[in-house]
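--- STAGE predict ---
source: upstream dedup step, 1 unique chain passed
mode: sequence only
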Amino acid sequence: MSAKLKLLHELIEPGVKSLGFELWGIEYLAHGVHSVLRVYIDAENGIGVDDCAKVSHQISGVLDVEEPISGQYNLEVSSPGLDRPLFTLEQFVAFTGHKVEIRLRVPFDGRRKFKGLLNGVEGDEVLVVVDKEEYLLPIDSIDRANVVPQF
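--- STAGE serialize ---
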């Protein structure tokens, strides 16, 4: 997790928890005036539009005071959804046995994209099986990981 994301997590999490929700994860996509701060929240009974509005209002106040991001950005608050992104080792452990898509920041073994069965975690590495071959991917090298919804 980058220093900026860690700071954002520290600023946002107390407000999210105070409203009775879990901070699932944060993405910050810096694109000049089109930058986006995406905050994912979760709860045992799911997330509704009103929940997202409450959390958005709560963390907007904190971000306006603390100003951890310079310049303009759009704040988006949503549930992780069926294709939920995975951010932490604990989340990878919780979704062991599910199909996942993982994109790395830099190539590993000649590739950046892996789609296969999440087979657990070893230390700080994620174990994924793709076409009967196991890969241990360091969590710090993962750019994005999502659960693949099964219908």
